[in-house]
């Protein structure tokens, strides 16, 4: 039962790595800014304020579709985590100390 | 940004900021105004007939006050006020008269007629798209007849804001708190408008913003010549009941529906 | 129950810091609301439209921004007022403004114009809505503010929640689901 819940939690979390996070942020900022600008210009040219609204909403939907699900492009640089204590070298990891240690 | 929910929240937050900025830009553009309007609103109003009769506010009220009915002519061209950011225009005619004796004193203002002119449906507007994709089922005959009557009341949809009324019966019969409105002098009729935008601030014809975007044409500022309220119609023995109570139709006048 | 409190009690400083953070957020929100009240000089500078009496101008759920620093309410302005003795604000348009009586030496300097209001979508004016014995409104006593701008449809969530109580259960269900599905 716990395994099933854990699987659903994984699915729901949609983890992406740090490079992917940066890419995601750039992506939604760019898409939303550009679609807002397009909405303003097109609505003004056509003198139809609803057109601006629909374009803006479409841009938001596009941004959400591209950014929220964990697409593989966001997982290109997975973080190389160190393993558990078992796989560490005997004696632990030695960190070269500075003065006073 | 680690989990999907975070990204959803971040995107939505940025969307609200963008939407707010867009709305601000559109509102400011309307007030500057860009595009500059090529024409300005103009209106002329004239009094046709004034009658003062005794009546009571409700059919059960013991108070008897004087009510004035002012029929008027109105010619107005307010189409320059309809921009892409106009939701509706509220046009109203007020009777302004000084409160004291002999045409002196502070002005009292009363609305005698008003109308709402909604902006025409643009190709992508909510109404138009709803009609296209979710067409209304055919209503029963009697209802549609009433609706089509209602539609003919609004002004020409191709050019909204053009009004042409002749001998228009007022919507409201006015009175004064003192109960006396007969024989007051130096009264005028004034046309005013209130523009409501889709985004931005409301604009009235008097006031700084109104002067910026809708200054009246010289000489056609919608003010009538001064007139006087006549003395009370002594020969009229029936009481004129105000709209609130059940109305007995007067001979020769229609029910309170405005004919334009 | 005490065991679930243990992580909070073992590190009191952190717990207090979190409580303080929460209180900071609440008080900032309260401060913003009150400063808006002061700037607009109105006890309630933002109101939600509850009825359809001003359609098609304002639909139910619209948020209205009020300004109360004008001395007079002109005919044609949209004002929000409270009926004496009741707490429900009403949003209607001023249709009549009667100047106070008296000219020159007679004039009562403290008198202000008598106002009558009416909703755009109503046939009759608001005389029936005023308190018993009151036929007109006074700018100082009754009016909460004059409408200057609005945001459409945002307040509709509160109205929907109060009119369809099953929505509250749906929302709670969704929140519960989120708690189970989230990792943190």
Automatic annotation (TrEMBL), chain A:
GO terms for biological process: protein targeting to ER; signal peptide processing. InterPro entries: Spc1/SPCS1 (IPR009542). The chain crosses the membrane at residues 27-44, 51-71. It is a multi-pass membrane protein. It is found in: Endoplasmic reticulum membrane. Its main location: endoplasmic reticulum. Keywords: Endoplasmic reticulum, Membrane, Transmembrane, Transmembrane helix. It comes from the Eukaryota. One of its GO terms (cellular component) is signal peptidase complex. Belongs to the SPCS1 family. Component of the signal peptidase complex (SPC) which catalyzes the cleavage of N-terminal signal sequences from nascent proteins as they are translocated into the lumen of the endoplasmic reticulum. Dispensable for SPC enzymatic activity. This is Signal peptidase complex subunit 1.
From TrEMBL, chain B:
InterPro entries: SPC3. Pfam families: SPC22 (PF04573). Its main location: endoplasmic reticulum. One of its GO terms (biological process) is signal peptide processing. GO terms for cellular component: signal peptidase complex. Essential component of the signal peptidase complex (SPC) which catalyzes the cleavage of N-terminal signal sequences from nascent proteins as they are translocated into the lumen of the endoplasmic reticulum. Essential for the SPC catalytic activity, possibly by stabilizing and positioning the active center of the complex close to the lumenal surface. Essential for viability. Belongs to the SPCS3 family. PANTHER family: MICROSOMAL SIGNAL PEPTIDASE 23 KD SUBUNIT SPC22/23 (PTHR12804), SIGNAL PEPTIDASE COMPLEX SUBUNIT 3 (PTHR12804:SF0). This is Signal peptidase subunit 3. It comes from Capronia epimyces CBS 606.96. The lineage of its organism: Eukaryota, Fungi, Dikarya, Ascomycota, Pezizomycotina.
Automatic annotation (TrEMBL), chain C:
The keyword Protease applies. PROSITE patterns: SPASE_I_1. Signal peptide: none annotated. Residues 39-96 form the Peptidase S24/S26A/S26B/S26C domain. Belongs to the peptidase S26B family. It comes from Capronia epimyces CBS 606.96. It is a single-pass type II membrane protein. One of its GO terms (biological process) is signal peptide processing. Catalytic component of the signal peptidase complex (SPC) which catalyzes the cleavage of N-terminal signal sequences from nascent proteins as they are translocated into the lumen of the endoplasmic reticulum. Specifically cleaves N-terminal signal peptides that contain a hydrophobic alpha-helix (h-region) shorter than 18-20 amino acids. It comes from the Eukaryota. This is Signal peptidase complex catalytic subunit SEC11. NCBIfam families: sigpep_I_arch (TIGR02228).
């Amino acid at each position: 039962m716990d395994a099933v819940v854990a699987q659903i939690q994984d699915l729901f979390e949609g983890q992406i790595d740090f490079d992917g996070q940066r890419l995601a942020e750039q992506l939604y900022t760019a898409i939303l800014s550009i679609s807002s600008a397009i909405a303003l210009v097109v609505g003004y040219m056509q003198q139809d304020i609803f057109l601006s609204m629909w374009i803006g909403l479409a841009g938001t939907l596009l941004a959400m579709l591209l950014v929220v699900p964990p697409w593989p492009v966001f997982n290109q640089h997975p973080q190389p985590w160190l393993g558990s204590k078992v796989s560490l070298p005997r004696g632990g990891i030695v960190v070269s100390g500075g003065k006073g240690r | 940004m680690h989990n999907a929910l975070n990204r959803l929240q971040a995107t939505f937050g940025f969307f609200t900021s963008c939407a707010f900025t867009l709305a601000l830009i559109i509102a400011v553009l309307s007030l500057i105004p860009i595009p500059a309007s090529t024409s300005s609103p103009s209106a002329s109003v004239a009094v046709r007939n004034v009658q003062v009769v005794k009546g009571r506010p409700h059919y059960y009220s013991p108070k008897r006050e004087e009510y004035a009915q002012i029929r008027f002519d109105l010619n107005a061209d307010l189409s320059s006020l309809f921009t892409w950011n106009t939701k509706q225009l509220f046009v109203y005619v007020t009777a302004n008269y000084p409160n004291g004796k002999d045409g002196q004193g502070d002005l009292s203002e009363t609305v005698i007629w008003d109308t709402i002119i909604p902006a025409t449906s643009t190709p992508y507007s909510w109404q138009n798209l709803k009609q296209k994709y979710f067409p209304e089922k055919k209503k029963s005959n009697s209802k549609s007849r009433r609706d089509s009557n209602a539609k003919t009341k609004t002004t020409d949809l191709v050019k909204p804001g053009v009004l042409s009324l002749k001998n228009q019966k007022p919507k409201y019969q006015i009175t004064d708190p003192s109960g006396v409105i007969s024989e007051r002098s130096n009264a005028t009729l004034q046309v005013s408008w209130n523009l409501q935008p889709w985004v931005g601030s409301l604009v009235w014809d008097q006031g700084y913003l109104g002067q910026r975007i809708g200054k009246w044409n010289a000489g056609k500022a919608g003010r009538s010549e001064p007139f006087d309220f006549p003395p009370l119609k002594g020969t009229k023995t029936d009481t004129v009941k105000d709209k609130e109570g059940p109305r007995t139709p007067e001979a020769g006048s229609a029910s309170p529906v405005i004919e334009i | 129950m005490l065991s679930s409190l243990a992580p909070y009690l073992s590190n009191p400083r952190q717990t207090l810091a979190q409580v303080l953070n929460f209180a900071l957020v609440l008080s900032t929100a309260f401060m913003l609301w009150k400063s808006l009240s002061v700037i607009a000089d109105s006890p309630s500078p933002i109101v939600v439209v509850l009825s359809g009496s001003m359609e098609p101008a304002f639909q139910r759920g619209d948020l209205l921004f009020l300004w109360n620093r004008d001395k007079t309410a002109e005919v044609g302005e949209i004002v929000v007022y409270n009926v004496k003795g009741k707490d429900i604000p009403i949003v209607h348009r001023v249709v009549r403004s009667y100047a106070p009586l008296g000219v020159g030496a007679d004039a009562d300097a403290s008198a202000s114009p008598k106002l009558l209001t009416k909703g755009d979508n109503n046939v009759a004016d608001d005389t029936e809505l005023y308190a018993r014995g009151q036929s007109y409104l006074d700018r100082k006593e009754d009016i909460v503010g004059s409408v200057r701008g609005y945001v459409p449809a945002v307040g509709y969530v509160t109205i929907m929640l109060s009119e369809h109580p099953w929505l509250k259960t749906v929302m709670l269900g969704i929140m519960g689901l989120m708690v189970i599905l989230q990792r943190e």
